[in-house]
Specification:
4 helices; 6-stranded mixed sheet
Length: 147
């Protein structure tokens, strides 16, 4: 994660991270169960995923920005997700081939022909690289506790 130079409210900082870094470091992110509902989806490798998850995959392929994620720094290099659990876990599911692209992908131009129903590992390398380089914005509370 890279800290930005943007001043936010006291005790908060903005960071950026790539989807690649998020996936590689997924073990440092826990869920604040007091603020986050249960994860809504069952991620199964090779399945198509929920329509909402397929739309997130579509957004990533098209390069659409995602809303910021909110985290609490609980020390020792660990973070709790305060807002963004569904997006975080779905991104991991996409990279893990649990989500397939929706039919609508082919409505966005010839470069997307034949991608409907494809999982992450099945799309062309340039698209996979673009997704992995996608920058995510993280708002981090640096002075909270798990409670």
């Amino acid at each position: 994660m890279q800290k930005t130079n943007v001043n936010i409210a006291p005790n908060y900082s903005l960071y950026t991270t790539s989807i690649s870094e998020l996936y590689t470091n997924k073990g440092i992110f826990g869920i604040n169960k007091r603020r986050q509902r249960k994860y809504l989806f069952n991620d199964i490798t090779g399945k198509k995923g929920h329509p909402w998850q397929r739309q997130l995959f579509l957004s990533l392929v098209l390069g659409n920005p995602l809303p910021q994620f909110e985290l609490a720094d609980i020390g020792d290099g660990k973070f709790l997700i305060e807002d963004g659990q569904q997006r975080t876990k779905t991104i991991i599911a996409i990279i893990s081939d649990c989500i397939k692209l929706p039919k609508e992908i082919e409505n966005f131009g010839d470069e997307y022909d034949g991608l409907s129903g494809k999982s992450f590992s099945e799309v062309p390398k340039n698209i996979r690289e673009k997704i992995l380089k996608t920058e995510l914005l993280l708002l981090v509370n640096e002075s909270s506790t798990e409670e």
